[in-house]
Structure formats: C-alpha cells, structure tokens
Design brief:
By secondary structure, the chain is an alpha/beta fold. It has 3 domains: 17-94 and 136-511, TIM Barrel (Alpha-Beta Barrel); 531-737, Glycoside hydrolase family 3 C-terminal domain (Rossmann fold); 765-885, Immunoglobulin-like (Sandwich). The chain contains 23 helices and 28 strands. Helix 9 (312-327) links the parallel strand 4 and strand 5. Helix 13 (438-448) packs across helix 14. The chain is globular. 56% of the residues are buried.
C-alpha cells in the first residue's frame, strides 16, 4: 500500500529537522538552525571515530530495548512541523525471537561456530507477489513531499544520504556484536543513508553465515536508531544479490547468472529474482546489488560469471526478467526490493586484469553493450545502476561526464539512483591517478557525473562525507548538485515503503518461508535446464545404475565448489571454515545426488575418490595407482574438472587454460586405463581444455550451479533429466580466441571449441527448412518465419531454437558473423513434432553509424536457425532500405 501522505503544499518553507530535536542524554545534539549549523570538522570526526573502537559492545537484545526507550523520548512535538514524510512517531520494530547463541568467542577454527537459528522450513507457501511481470520505471520526476523533505535537510544531512558504509564499521572488533557507539557515530554524526553487506563478510563476524532472524535484529536495531537520530531518514540496506540472498543462512541459492542464461528461459532469471527478493526483505535488506547487464566478451574476465553471456539480445531479455523478478511492483509490493544493475558500462571487454582498462568503440558501445542496460532500465524498470570501476577507452569511468551523464542520463534517459563501485573514489586517485588526492576525486566525481551514492569501504576514512561537505561550504561545489542526488535517493526510499509504518523493518512473516522446499526445487529446476551437454561420443551418457562407475574430482564431493563466489562470502567459503560444514546441512553434493538417484540397492556400483587437489600440481604415485586399479574394475569414469571459488580481482588469470595438473590427470588416466570418460565442468568461465576435449567421450558443462546443483547433475548423468542448456558464450579452443564472439565481423575467423548456442540432448532432433510468408523484409511489414522440430528419439526433450541474421553487405560497418534476434524453447514429446514461429521486423535490423544514426543497407539478409549444428537451416530475404531513423530506442 502506498504511504498515506498529507498534502501540506500551502506551507511556505520547511524548518530544519535538527532544529526540533529534544535533548535526550548523550543522544543530544545542538539545536542550531540549519542555516547556521556548521559541518563537523575532520578533526572532530576523527576524534569521534577513535572512541568507537574502544567502546563497550552492546548485546543486540539489550540494544533493541535501549533504542525503543530512546524512541519514546524522541516523539516530535505538537508545535513543530516536520516534513510530511517524517511527521509521525517512529514505530517500534517487530519483535523477532532471538535466543542466545551458544558459540565460543573464537575465530579461524577449522569448524567455526554456526548461527544456531534456522528459518521456518516450510515446504510450500502461497504466492506473495501482487504483480509478477510488471516492471516500474524509476520515477521521471520527484514527488513533492520528497522535495520538501530534501529541502529541509542541512548540508551534512544531505551528504549523509549520499554515503554508504559497510556493516563491518558498525561491529565490535573483538566480539562481532553491534557496537552501539559506532552505530550512533555513523548514524547521528555522519548521518549515513545506506549500509551494505552482511556481518558474515566482515573480519569481525561471529559466524560465516547469519540467519535471517539475526540479520533482521541487526538491521532493525540500526534502523531504529536512524529513525530517531541523525536526519531521521530511514536507512536502505544493500546486499550483493546476483543469485538470490546468498549471504543469508539457508536462503535459496540459484545458479550463477551465466548458468541462468544457458537455460534460454527468461523465467529462470525471473524466479531467481523473485525468491531472492523476499529472502532479502526477510533479513531487513531492501536494495539488491544486481543483476549484471555486462557482456562477457573477454572470457578470462572473473566477473563474467555474473553476466548473462556474450550476446546483447540474450543478455537484454535475461537481465530485464531478472530485474522484474527482484523488483516486481516494488512501489507497492513490500516483499520486493530495488535493483542496482551493474556495472555501467563495458566492464566485460577488459584488456588486462579485472580492474584494468577496457577499449570499446562508440559503435560497439551503442550497438552491443548498451542494449542490455536499456532493457534493464526501461523493460525491467531498474531503480538504480552501479557504475563500473576502472577506465574505459583511457577515461576514468567514475569521473566521466560522457559515460555517466551523456550516455546514462541523456541517451538512456535513466532517472534513478546511481551507485559508485565499492571504494571507487580511492581507486580514482590511488590506482588510476585520475585525481590529485581524495578531495579532488570527490570533486571530480560530483562535479562531472551524476553519481548519487558513494560506497565507503574503508572503515577508517569517512573521506567522502567530510570532503563533500567541505567542497559545498567552501563554494567549490554547488549545493544544488548534492540536492539533486539526495532527491533521487529519498524518492527510492519512499518507493520502497521505508517511510510507511513498520515497513523500514524486516518482515517477520517472510522469515518463516526462507529456504522453503518449493524455493529449493525452483533452484534445482533452473540447474536442470542450464546443464549443457557439449559432447557425447558413442552415447557414453546417460549412465545406467547397473553400470560400475568411478567418480573422480573434488568438485563432485563439495557443495562449496559447486557454489563458487558470491556464496557465503563474496569469495566463497574459506578452507578454514570447514568446507561444507558452513552450510549446516543445506545443499547437495553431486555424490549425495548420485546416491539418491540410483538408490541404496545400487550403491555397490559406484566408487568415489578425490583424485587430485585443486591447489597442488601432481597426484602421489601410490594414490594414482589405487585410482587406476579402481578404474580397471569400472565400466565408465566420471571426472569433474574446474575452478576454485573467486570473485573480482582474486579471479584474475593470465591464461585461460585449465590448470595443467587437472589436464595431466585426465591424460595419464586415459593412458593407463581404456575406459569411456565423461567430464563434468564446474567453472565460471570457459577454461581451455586442450587434450581433454579430445580424450573425453562426453563433456557436460555445469557452470556454477550453486549448492543445490548436486541432484540435478546426478539426474542428468543418469538420464532422469534430458539436458537442454545451450552455451551463452563462445567456448574458445585457443588462448587467442578469448575475445571471440558470435557477433564479431563476418570476415573474422570463428573456429572455437564450441560455438555460441551449442548444446546437445539425449534425443535426436530434426529441423525442417524455414518458411517465410514473404520474400522481402521491409519497413512496417513484419515477416513471420516458421519451422518444424521433430523428436526422433525415445525421450521427451526441451529444445532451444535460436534465430540469427546477417547481411550480405553493409557500407558503414562490417556485418556481424551472426546476430541473435530471437530464441524460444519448446517441449517436443518423443516421436512427435512441434512448430516454432518467429516474427521479425526490418526496423530492428538497423545498425548504428559513426554519427550514431540507425541505418540499414539494401541487401540480402540471411536468416539462420541453429547455427554451427547439424540442424542449421538458412533462408534469404531481400532487405529494403531504411534511412536515418529516430526510433523510441537508440538501440
């Protein structure tokens, strides 16, 4: 329900909030008028923070009561008129049971203490969303009551709204409990508007994973202080959410977005967002830092796993569905969150390391990289966008008026909140040397761009709020620039319902359905549709339960390795956390899945050995000898290969090739034993397989399926699931192909290991020729293309159908090798056929010139389905010309 806002438009001017605060013990602040109130000095801020680290920690339950008592003393007076959005008594948060945890005050133990709290564990629950697929654009204008509130704020209160801090800055360094002195400092003095991350990602955490109950009490306690002190504008809590609320204990973890893209089912991304949003809200978080709209052009890019692949059309459809899943009708539905689409722009076309320079021509930028952001913003309705760190074409992104004003605000017409990348201001002057010092970096970022919120990761700095206030007070920066950003931030908070009674707090009713059985099954279904069979020589897969099978590789017996990064922590669970111990019983390994699939009576037919370590170069001779003896007793061998967990710069690699000792292990085993080998790839990017690609009889790409991926992988290996995933990227054969894409120039060599869109099933499929209702593709005259898919096998199969175009010639830019225009996924029952139809228009085939007009040359257009497969079919149509056009979209 929308907030009940009383119209007070007849009032002239709004008094300062700080002018009407009653004196309440140590919470008292000076009651000077905002016009004469001075910003805190850097020395006083530093002194205040120095006292934080030595303060006594406060138990959360005690803090909860304490803040409630404070709140009773902070009711607005009857005579003072506050801005409409604040003209109410701050409500107490809902009571959430939080029994005393029984854990030792120790860290770095092999098996760390686990948060004993569990969610309700229900199996099913009714639908909670009001509108499933309806998006909401960020508002084109700011509401009047929001403007009144913003105009009433002092400069320091405005700057506070633009400041985001890490939750670790609110914790006691020794116990990991909330440090209420730190809370009061950051909320009352710095007046921060946002907090990011969970305590589990802090060096001061008590547990690797925090339960939704414990997170709810933490967020509620701090939120209660924010409603009583500082600017009294509620905080918005943010969390990385690229695959659900994966930092919350027992929240449902979906496959990584790259795997979601492999389903070629937009609903996969939608469901992951819908379930993730309610789990975030259950924990008191309202801002999801995700999904990613970047393209995975450079295959070495560590964050490519966060993307929906290399293709602009696939990424556009999937990211818009993901945003709709997370946000839905977020302005009314309080089980939804605001999305922050990352990382604007060109982050996936790096030239070197994760934070290194990227080079993207204007033509490539507008033609390939921006469409997914446009879809996220206008089709999905994204409330916010996160800028990319680093530089693009030699220009620092965080200080670029071209990219962050002209392209984002003017060309894309984005009206929502823009968030900086974490600690980006420090990156600008320390790493990129784009500013003389920290103050200069703040000035250039605010003066040149339209960034609204800056993420402060360095707990000792507080540099952004201090420098921003100094710049305004010195006259170097116009206060109107600050006001513009704060208005967008407060508008998003209003849209999220944070000014409604009880809505700034975690919803206790949602805690009971965190980790529900139906959510886990939804995650497994996404895995089932994502698994991509790359090779199946002599039908080695599927396995039979009656066959003797030797399973090898650490990925088969670890849920943590199935999860990868953004799983427990940003970098994944650490070795010192005891492996799968950290999940406290949630999730399935592949081996546990195999045991469930084949049944107890067939367990004697399987054997498992780790085989090799991910972090060592060779297997001991005696260990390898034991493996060879087991392999000779087996009918088939299944080997899992892949990567460590990583995120961001820790995933940088100089070579795309899979670790040499894994490749050598497969080579040596194939020499020692003549048995069919099936390889399962557990990886966030396409690592070069070298000889393994030829040695293996079958290869199944599992991507990073998450902790619920074990059962679906086992089902697929044993034929209970017919694989239907397709590659959302080009899988290179050689290092030099790491930047190859399906949309590269038609004259370039494209001979990868496996092409974009490649994938097999267990049934043989036959496509008919394409038919068209016209021989010409002309403006205003859509063409309908039809084909028939026949299942010649003995299993039902979901079959993706991918339709591409390319032109015979173009005068301005070389035609693409192939450009994905449509895709669908149809269920074809065994022994039956299904018709697939696509509608294509001439207008959407226009391309950008150097002047960024959209044109098309009069030439033949070739339309292809299932490129690079035995079912490739092509039809040619004459393309009528379109001159320079002004469509609703520049893409």
């Amino acid at each position: 329900m929308e907030p009940n806002i009383v119209d007070q438009s007849e009032e002239t001017g709004s008094p300062s909030i700080s002018a009407h605060r009653p004196e309440v013990g140590k919470y008292t602040t000076s009651t000077t008028d905002s016009a004469t109130e001075t910003a805190y000095s850097s020395s006083s801020a530093a002194d205040a923070y120095d006292n934080v680290s030595s303060a006594q920690p406060v138990d959360i339950n005690d803090a909860y009561k304490k803040v409630g008592q404070i709140n009773q003393l902070l009711r607005p007076t009857k005579t003072a008129r506050l801005p409409e959005l604040l003209d109410h008594t701050p409500p107490p948060p809902p009571q959430i049971a939080l029994p005393q945890a029984n854990y030792p005050k120790q860290r770095n133990r092999l098996h760390p203490a686990l948060d004993p709290l569990m969610p309700g564990g229900v199996d099913m629950y009714p639908a909670i969303e009001q509108q499933q697929l309806q998006g909401n654009d960020a508002p084109a204008k700011i509401d009047e009551d929001v403007w009144k509130l913003v105009e009433s704020l002092s400069v320091d209160e405005k700057v506070g709204q633009m400041t985001q801090i890490h939750v670790g800055m609110l914790l006691d360094a020794h116990t990991g409990d909330l440090n209420m002195t730190a809370v009061e400092y950051w909320v009352d003095q710095v007046k921060v508007g946002s907090v990011v991350d969970t305590p589990g990602n802090s060096a001061h955490s008590q547990f690797p994973l925090y339960s939704p109950q414990r997170l709810a009490n933490i967020t509620n306690t701090v939120q209660q202080v924010s409603l009583a002190r500082g600017s009294r504008v509620p905080l918005v809590w943010a969390m990385d959410a690229v695959r659900g609320a994966s930092y919350v204990k027992h929240a449902t973890m979906f496959p990584m977005p790259l795997a979601q893209a492999a389903t070629f089912q937009p609903q996969s991304a939608y469901v992951a967002g819908r379930i993730g949003s309610k789990d975030l809200r259950a924990s008191g978080y309202q801002w999801a830092l995700g999904p990613s709209a970047d393209l995975m052009v450079e295959k070495k890019w560590p964050d490519g796993v966060l993307s929906f692949g290399e293709d602009p059309m696939l990424a556009s459809v999937m990211v818009a569905s993901s945003v709709r899943g997370y946000q839905g009708d977020y302005k009314r539905d309080r089980a939804r969150v605001a999305c922050c689409v990352r990382n604007f722009v060109g982050a996936g076309q790096q030239l070197g390391a994760h934070t290194g320079m990227r080079a993207v021509s204007d033509h490539q930028l507008f033609e390939y990289h921006l469409p997914a952001f446009e879809a996220a913003i206008h089709t999905g309705g994204a409330a916010s966008v996160m800028q990319a760190s680093g530089s693009l074409n030699g220009e620092s992104l965080g200080m670029s008026p071209f990219y962050l004003r002209h392209v984002l605000r003017d060309t894309l017409a984005f009206r929502g909140v823009m968030l900086s990348d974490q600690s980006d201001l420090r990156t600008q002057f320390r790493d990129l040397h784009a500013a003389a010092n920290a103050t200069d970096a703040v000035f250039l970022a605010l003066n040149n761009t339209s960034v609204d919120v800056t993420s402060e990761e360095d707990s000792s700095s507080g540099a952004f709020p201090r420098d921003a206030m100094d710049l305004v007070h010195s006259g170097s920066l116009n206060e109107d620039r600050i006001t513009e950003s704060v208005a967008r931030v407060v508008q998003m908070k209003k849209d999220l319902g944070l000014f409604d009674s009880f809505k700034p707090f975690a919803d206790p009713s949602l805690i009971e359905i965190v980790g529900a059985a139906q959510d886990i099954e939804d995650a497994r279904n996404v895995v089932r549709e994502s698994l991509t069979l790359l090779k199946n020589q002599n039908s080695v897969l599927p396995l039979s339960a009656s066959e003797r099978v030797l399973f090898l590789g650490p990925h088969l017996n670890s849920t943590g390795l199935l999860g990868g990064g953004f799983n427990v922590h940003m970098q994944g669970p650490s070795d010192r956390e005891g492996g799968d111990h950290v999940y406290d019983g949630f999730g399935d390994t592949v081996m546990s899945g195999v045991r469930k699939v084949i049944g107890d009576d067939k367990l004697g037919n399987i054997a498992y050995r780790r085989g090799f370590r991910l972090d060592s170069s060779d297997v001991r001779a005696d260990e390898f000898g034991q493996i060879v003896r087991l392999a000779r007793k087996s009918d088939k061998i299944v080997i899992a290969l892949g990567e460590h967990a990583y995120a961001g710069a820790t995933g940088d690699v100089h070579e795309l090739a899979l670790d040499a000792h894994q490749i050598n292990f497969v080579k040596q085993l194939s020499i020692a034993v003549n048995r069919p080998i099936a390889v399962v790839l557990v990886e966030g990017r396409p690592r070069l397989l070298k000889e393994v690609a030829d040695i293996a009889d079958s290869i199944l790409m599992a991507y990073l399926p998450g902790i619920h991926g074990g059962i679906p992988i086992a089902e697929t290996l044993y034929g209970q699931v017919n694989p239907s995933g397709r590659l959302p990227l080009t899988y290179p054969r050689y290092e030099s192909q790491s930047r190859d894409t399906i949309w590269q120039g038609i004259n370039s060599e494209y001979k990868p290991q496996w092409a974009f869109g490649h994938g097999l099933g267990y049934s043989k499929m036959l496509f008919s020729n394409i038919t068209s209702d016209t021989s010409e593709l002309a403006p205003g005259k859509p063409v309908t293309l039809r084909m028939t898919v026949q299942n010649l096998g003995t299993r039902d199969q979901w079959e993706p159908v991918l339709l591409y175009t390319t032109q015979a010639f173009r005068t301005a830019y070389e035609p693409e090798l192939l450009r994905l225009r449509r895709f669908d996924k149809v269920l074809v029952k065994q022994g039956t056929a299904a018709e697939v139809a696509f509608t294509l228009t001439a207008e959407e085939l226009a391309y950008h010139t150097r002047a960024l007009d959209k044109v098309v040359d009069s030439s033949v257009v070739n339309i292809t389905v299932n490129a690079f497969s035995t079912n490739q079919r092509t039809i040619s149509l004459q393309f009528s010309p379109i001159s320079s056009t002004n469509t609703d979209s520049v893409f």
